[in-house]
Write a structure and sequence with these properties.
Elements: H1 5-8, H2 11-29, H3 34-47, H4 50-66, E1 71-75, E2 78-83, E3 86-92, E4 102-106, E5 121-124, H5 129-142
Antiparallel strand pairs: 1-2, 2-3, 3-4, 4-5
Length: 144
Amino acid sequence: MSETTEQRFTDEERAAMKERANEAKAARRGSRGKADVEAEVLAKIAEMEPADRAMAERVHAIVRAGAPELTPKLWYGMPSYARNGKIICFFQPAAKFKSRYATLGFNDEAALDDGTMWPTSFALTALTAADEQRIGDLVRRAVS
């Protein structure tokens, strides 16, 4: 007996895929400006559970300050930051996939290369001043 898509993906994963499909449709329509897209990101952050929301707000502020050339956008329903339409980094709230921690992730467009192996995802349970400094450094390096 083969597995169906319904059996292979969790409810959360299916919801994320639907969000991505809707984001792609909206982008193809092209009717939204940068301010509208950023407002959508901020609205999505505002919907998050308190701990995720606090971290997402800080990450958003850090990314906007450290790499103002990146465009905020939604990606699978998560706040992300792109250059030339390609996602550089994203914030995945813990509640999205019922995880014990949020994730700050960097895609392959990020210039974080360091030898033959380097981290591209970071677990976040809280943000200290040192964590915020490190995120700012990573974001600036990612767009260099």
